[in-house]
Design goal:
The protein is α+β, with helices and mostly antiparallel strands. The protein is built from 5 helices and 8 strands, in the order ββαββααββαββα. It has one domain: 3-Layer(aba) Sandwich (Chemotaxis protein chec), CATH 3.40.1550.20.
Length: 148
């Protein structure tokens, strides 16, 4: 279970260092074999490869004749890259994915249970601001009556 938000810096070679608290879990779960891809919200998704495979299979089972389905296939599968953590726990972020998400040196790695999101610092702050101000944010119907 991956959770928590961590501020990170991409190094000079555009690698991110996975926080130590997640490295061991990723080594056990997938031997450091990950999939990095684009998300429609202009962030990146980082999945352990075994967790990504059923998602890709579902996407590819959708009709390529449906505009919305094929758009998702192009984005999520088209941008998907197999990446491997190196011995120092670093993952290379390609120029295409950095450009898509507008990643600069400072980024946020945000645990989402089965995977991570990678955000540019500016986009992450924008997301938080939207939620805090209620700007276009509505509670999903599935959570009606939910309390913390």
């Amino acid at each position: 279970m991956f959770r928590g938000a961590t501020s990170l810096s991409l190094d000079a070679k555009s690698r991110l260092a996975v926080p130590t608290k997640h490295r061991d879990a990723l080594q056990l779960e997938c031997a450091g074999n990950l999939v990095l891809t684009a998300h429609p919200h202009r962030c990146l998704l980082l999945y352990p490869q075994p967790a990504w495979e059923p998602i890709q299979a579902k996407l590819m089972a959708l009709s390529s004749f449906d505009r919305n389905s094929s758009a998702l296939q192009r984005l999520l599968v088209g941008f998907a890259e197999d990446v491997t953590m190196d011995s120092a726990g670093r993952v290379l972020v390609s120029p295409a994915l950095r450009d898509f998400a507008g990643l600069g040196k400072e980024i946020m790695l945000v645990g989402q249970g089965s995977h991570f999101e990678l955000w540019s610092m500016e986009a992450w702050r924008g997301q938080l601001e939207q939620v805090m101000q209620g700007d276009g944010f509505t509670m999903p119907a599935e959570l009606e009556g939910f309390s913390l």
